[in-house]
Every structure is written in structure tokens, then in C-alpha cells.
């Protein structure tokens, strides 16, 4: 039996990257009662979360919802999609690699019907970001990562990039910018930056370990009520007098909508769910950044310093027709990341490094759906990795594996390396590299696109450019599920910018204007 309804002005479902921003911005008005519903615990004072370098130990653990992947005929069917169950969401769980979106990424959004989301509107919001975003600190710059940058730039003729956020770039290698404090290795996650300083605001309520599983209509037919399961197992109904802001991420946002009868009508009927809004685009357009991995054994242990063991990267543009953006990316791991190669039978070196060729603008598009009307049953995720008809994604991985070998063979990086462990020097043909590259492929945990934004006449758009649920008042979506296309680079900052933009849309405030599109983060 549900408890008495508790009312707020704004209900934010999901205390993650976007939800933290919205909670801070909307509660700036002391007259606004803001409630955040977060399924996980607080991150305050928990060094397992707050120390950035511990991220790899969070995967598959108690702070991870751990969504499985449908069988991938051309990819890796064993990928576990980590989604964070903790305040701050995936910004409390990931590596905090922080890139501004490229202007062309946002131009694509406008071209797909997202008026008001161009670079001239969105990029100035960088001046509002409260996170500390800086290039990897000098003390964290491991010598082998430095030698990777030197080898990549000398072998491939690309520039060293000192700050990837200083200006848009076409190619280059360098140390990433991270949202962290180089002195302490503490995260500057969305929760640390936006929520920790304001936890004592009397108009802000955090309901932690509280799981939202159904949206309900109010007397006027608006989706402003949310049924939640409390930490003690009891059920409550929360109501928003102004709006519900759905910020649960690209998997749990569409999952909650569909459990509430909002989504593709035929699919919902087949599960016995009453259809309350037929929106066929919910769950479609599932995007990701797939990447593969090459592993080398090093001649001995590496120096111990690092920010988070994947501190440097490389970007290349192979096809100039794609415009002034890279179309191949590499993370350089200072640890042997062997979760997929070990399953394929490759040995695990005691000391090693990896390069991970990544597909920045993958053309394979998947979908997700409910398996059951039972909220406890996890949804089905089918990313359809490497299924694009032109073979672009597969080609990108094969090219990347070959280029990784070139860099590994170049001094000074080559001086550290003993042997190539996976796939090994015998794997040479395009066909064999493709087979290995796809089977060893992984995700960098960037699901997006499942409630995409679009124009009013786009039948598959789920939200309009004001982020309002199509055809319904009282509910907006603010997270990576709204992305119509995937940003070229790690998307966390794009989510932060979208949330800052959403706060202005909700409060009918103007955007910050054209100032601040150049220069570094504050």
C-alpha cells in the first residue's frame, strides 16, 4: 500500500551527472522545493568512490547495476554495461575524461531538428561548469604514457596537444583533461562539484537508496507523479507541482518510461502493460563508442604514478570528408586491461600496457526493450555492434589495430615493450584482425540516444528541443538518452552542458551568450 503522497516543485529522477546539475541550479531559488530520487547511496566521505584511480575496482561491484548485452553476432556478447548506483551517477564511477563536444557534433544535432542546440548556444555554458577540469597533473604523468605520446606524434606526424579543451582539434596525442584534483586524486564529479557544497540547503531533499519504477498521471493527465520503493521496502508516491525531470540515463530513463506505459505501443501491449502514450522512438537509436584492445607485456613493472591508469590518448583523422574531427581514437592503458582477451584464451601478463582503438562516430545503431512488465527484470540491450552496412566501424577497428602496432614499434615506447600478447604478431590479415578486434571489443560505457531529441514532425523523436516529452506536459528528460547522434568524444561534459542548458529552459532564462567559447575551463 502506497504512503501518503509527498509533494515538491521539482522531482529529479536520478542523482547522476545531469541530475546533480539540475538539483543545484533549481534549488538556487529558495522558494523552489527540489527533490532528488537516487537509487544508490551517497558518495560523501567514501574514498572508494571519491578516489579517481579506484574506478577500475568499481566495475561489476556494489555500485554497478551491471546490465548484460544481447548476443552480438558480429561483436562481443559478454560485455557488461556498467551503470552507476551512487550519487553522482557515472561521474562517480568512470574515468572522468572530459572533452567539450566538437562544434560539428552540435551542428549535426541542429541539422537533425534540434533547434537551439548549436555550438553558439551550447558551448558558452562551459563557463558555468563547476567541475575542476584540468589536464593530467605533472606528478601523475607516468613516463611510459609520456613515451607513448612521443612515439605516436613522431611516428604519425600528429601534434602534441597540451589541452584538448583549448580549441577543437583534428588529430593529436597528449594527456587527457580530467575532472579531478591532481593534489588529492579526488574526483570533481557532478556530485562533488554541484551537490556537496549545497547539501544543507533547506529546500533540497535527497532521497537515497530510493528506486523510481513507475510514472503516474495527476488529475490533469500530466506525468508528474512517481511511484518509488523506499530503502525499507515500502512504497511511496512523490508528486511534482511544476515538473518531473527524468535523469536516469540512457538505459534507465527509457526503462522507466516503458514500465509506465510510455513507449512503443505494440511492445508494451505484448507485455501486458497498459499504453498511456504511444511513443515508438523510446528505446530505439541506442548508441555507443565501441573499442577494441591490444595488449603488450612490458619488460618489468612500470613507475607507479598515474591519475587513473588511462591518462593519455591519440586521435587521428583518416577521412577528410568527415570534416575537421577525428574518426579514430585510442586510450593508452598503463595496466593490462585483459577482461576480454583472457576470455579468448590469451595470457595475462604480470606487467603490461594496452592501446584501445575506438570508433568515435560509430554507424552501427542498436535498440533496447523491456523483457518483462516486472520492474525488477533488467531490460534487453542490443547495440548491434559492427553491423553498419558499409563496414565503417569494423574498418576503423582494423585500421586502429594496425596503427597501434606502428606506435608500439616506435621508440621510446618500444623500449619498454617485451612482446605483443594479444592478438600476437601472427594475426596479420584484415580478416583475422577484424575477427580478433570484434571479439575482443569492449565498451567505454557511453550508451546514449534512446529518447532522442528532434523536431515536432519527427515521429521517432521522444523529446522536443525544450526536452519536453513529446505531446505531454509536466515531464522533461535530461541525460544522454536525448542525444540524437553521439558526440565524437567522451560525452560526460556534453551531458553537463545539456543539464546547464536544461536548467535555463526550465526557468525560462536566456542562454549565456557567445562569450566563453575559447580558452580553458575555469
From TrEMBL:
Family statement: Belongs to the GMC oxidoreductase family.
Name of the molecule in the record: Oxidoreductase
Start and end residues of each Glucose-methanol-choline oxidoreductase N-terminal domain: 249-263
Gene3D superfamilies per record: 3.30.410.40, FAD/NAD(P)-binding domain (3.50.50.60)
Molecular functions per Gene Ontology: flavin adenine dinucleotide binding; oxidoreductase activity, acting on CH-OH group of donors
Pfam annotation, one family: GMC_oxred_N
Cofactor field: FAD
Sequence positions that bind FAD: 86
Protein origin, superkingdom: Bacteria
Native species: Streptomyces venezuelae
Keywords: FAD, Flavoprotein
Keyword Flavoprotein annotated: yes
Amino acid at each position: 500500500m502506497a504512503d501518503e503522497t509527498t509533494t515538491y516543485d521539482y522531482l529529479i529522477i536520478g542523482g547522476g551527472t545531469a541530475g546533480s546539475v539540475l538539483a543545484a541550479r533549481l534549488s538556487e531559488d529558495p522558494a523552489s522545493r527540489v527533490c532528488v530520487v537516487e537509487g544508490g547511496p551517497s558518495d560523501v566521505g567514501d574514498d572508494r568512490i571519491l578516489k579517481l584511480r579506484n574506478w577500475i575496482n568499481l566495475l561489476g561491484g556494489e555500485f554497478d547495476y551491471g546490465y548484460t548485452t544481447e548476443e552480438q553476432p558480429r561483436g562481443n556478447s559478454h560485455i557488461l554495461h556498467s551503470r552507476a548506483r551512487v550519487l553522482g551517477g557515472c561521474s562517480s564511477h568512470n574515468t572522468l575524461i572530459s572533452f567539450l563536444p566538437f562544434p560539428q557534433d552540435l551542428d549535426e544535432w541542429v541539422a537533425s531538428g534540434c533547434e537551439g542546440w548549436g555550438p553558439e548556444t551550447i558551448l558558452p555554458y562551459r563557463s558555468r561548469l563547476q567541475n575542476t577540469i584540468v589536464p593530467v597533473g605533472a606528478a601523475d604523468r607516468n613516463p611510459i604514457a609520456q613515451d607513448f605520446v612521443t612515439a605516436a606524434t613522431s611516428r604519425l606526424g600528429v601534434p602534441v596537444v597540451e589541452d584538448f579543451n583549448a580549441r577543437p582539434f583534428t588529430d593529436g596525442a597528449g594527456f587527457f583533461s580530467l575532472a579531478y584534483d591532481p593534489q588529492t586524486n579526488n574526483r570533481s564529479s557532478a556530485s562533488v562539484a554541484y551537490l556537496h557544497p549545497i547539501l544543507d540547503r533547506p529546500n533540497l531533499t535527497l532521497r537515497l537508496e530510493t528506486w523510481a519504477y513507475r510514472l503516474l498521471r495527476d488529475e490533469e493527465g500530466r506525468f508528474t507523479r512517481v511511484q518509488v520503493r523506499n530503502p525499507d521496502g515500502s512504497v511511496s508516491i512523490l508528486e511534482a507541482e511544476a515538473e518531473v525531470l527524468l535523469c536516469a540515463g540512457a538505459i534507465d530513463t527509457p526503462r522507466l518510461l516503458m514500465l509506465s506505459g510510455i513507449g512503443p505501443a505494440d511492445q508494451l501491449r505484448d507485455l501486458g502493460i497498459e499504453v498511456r502514450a504511444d511513443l515508438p522512438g523510446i528505446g530505439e537509436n541506442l548508441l555507443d563508442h565501441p573499442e577494441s584492445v591490444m595488449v603488450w607485456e612490458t619488460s618489468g613493472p612500470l613507475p607507479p604514478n598515474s591519475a587513473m591508469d588511462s591518462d593519455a590518448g591519440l586521435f587521428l583523422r583518416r577521412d577528410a570528408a568527415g570534416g575537421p574531427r577525428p574518426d579514430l581514437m585510442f586510450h593508452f592503458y598503463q595496466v593490462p586491461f585483459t577482461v576480454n582477451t583472457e576470455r579468448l584464451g590469451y595470457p595475462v601478463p604480470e606487467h603490461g600496457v594496452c592501446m584501445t582503438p575506438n570508433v568515435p562516430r560509430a554507424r552501427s545503431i542498436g535498440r533496447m526493450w523491456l523483457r518483462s512488465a516486472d520492474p525488477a527484470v533488467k531490460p534487453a540491450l542490443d547495440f548491434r555492434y559492427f553491423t553498419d552496412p558499409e563496414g565503417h566501424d569494423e574498418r576503423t577497428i582494423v585500421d586502429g589495430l594496425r596503427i597501434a602496432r606502428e606506435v608500439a614499434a616506435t621508440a621510446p615506447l618500444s623500449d619498454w615493450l617485451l612482446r605483443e600478447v594479444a592478438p600476437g604478431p601472427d594475426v596479420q590479415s584484415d580478416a583475422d584482425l577484424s575477427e580478433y578486434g570484434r571479439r575482443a571489443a569492449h565498451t567505454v560505457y557511453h550508451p546514449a540516444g534512446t529518447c532522442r531529441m528532434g523536431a515536432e514532425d519527427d515521429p521517432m523523436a521522444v523529446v522536443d528541443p525544450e526536452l519536453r516529452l513529446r505531446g505531454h506536459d509536466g515531464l522533461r528528460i535530461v541525460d544522454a538518452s536525448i542525444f540524437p547522434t553521439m558526440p565524437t568524444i567522451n560525452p560526460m561534459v556534453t551531458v553537463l552542458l545539456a543539464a546547464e542548458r536544461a536548467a535555463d529552459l526550465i526557468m525560462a532564462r536566456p542562454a549565456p551568450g557567445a562569450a566563453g567559447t575559447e580558452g580553458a575551463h575555469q
